[in-house]
Amino acid sequence: MDGIINVMDDFCIHVGALHRGFPGPPQLWSVGHIARKTAWVRKAFQSFNYSFVLRGRGEYRTAEGTFAVVAPCVMTQWPGVHVEYGPHDAWEELYMIYRPEALPDLLRMKLADVRKPLWFVSDATRLKRVLAELTERLADVSAPGQCDAIDRLAESAVLESIISTAPAPACAPDAAISSIRSQAQAHYMDALDFDALAADEGMSPATFRRHWNRIVGMPPGRYQTALRIQQACRLLAETRLSIGEIAERTGFDDPLYFSRKFRQCTGRSATEYRRISPAMNPDDAG
């Protein structure tokens, strides 16, 4: 998402207590930007938040599972719910914070859904324009009507991100495969029923596999395994977790089966991969 925000510095601006000339729910409380986020967050917030990940990759962990974060996407954090999330290396993030009293209005407006903690933005064209205007108006929050406009732009940013995730029509196989692939990336730790996901997109199992193999280049089960092995590589390089613990964290019940699959995918044993990986930063050890 190049060129969304025309500032390089981090900022956090509190607008909740400022005057509204045209008040209407919900009112934004704070908005911030982190140009290069490297730290992980592990906490339960008291607020309801949107995190727009504009560049980079990482993970988002909730009680429901572990989700791959691939920009551009949007994560939500709910009041009192413990979450863990952060980048593999670094990502750019714009976040919007609402007081918990605003949540009923956000739910009523269908701008929040407890069943969707994260969603991917397939076409960010309009979202770029909204976020650009939002950050531009933040330069002078004291101007008359400015906070009212910021409230509306925040709603519009969320709406544009949700609109872009609308299901692809059944007659567009490439779009359907893209949707299924995004779901696989978000839920790679879960037991996925690819035939059921294909049916949701209006595709038969045979049609799904034909188009999937054409676009992705490998069977869906092997693709999910590759995502898990990719995460295992990161954990081997960046943590001191045992190979058995890494196997469990990446969805393999049997460490021996994990070791076999790891060698098949990488050409090396997990032990050898860890040995030749660059030394990790002690501060990053898990």
TL;DR?
With 286 residues, the protein is α+β, with helices and mostly antiparallel strands. The chain contains 10 helices and 10 strands. It has 3 domains: 11-163, Jelly Rolls (Sandwich); 173-217; 222-284, Arc Repressor Mutant, subunit A.
Topology:
Blueprint: E1 11-14, E2 30-37, E3 41-44, E4 48-55, E5 57-62, E6 65-70, E7 73-77, E8 82-87, E9 91-98, H1 103-108, E10 118-120, H2 125-137, H3 146-163, H4 173-186, H5 194-200, H6 205-216, H7 220-238, H8 243-249, H9 255-266, H10 270-276
**How many structural units, i.e. domains?**
3
Structural class assignment: alpha+beta
State the CATH topology of the largest domain: Jelly Rolls
Number of helices: 10
Mean pLDDT: 87
